[in-house]
Amino acid sequence: MQRVANCVLHVNDYVLLLKKPRRGWYVAPGGKMEAGENIKDSAVREFWEETGLTVTDPEMRGSFTFVMREEGTTVQEWMMFTFYSTSYTGELLEISEEGELEWVHVDDVLQKPMAEGDREIFRHLLNSKEQVYGTFVYTTDFQLLDKELDRLSLKNEERCKRCIWIQMKRS
Question: Across the strands, what pairs with 135?
Answer without folding.
Answer: 65, 148
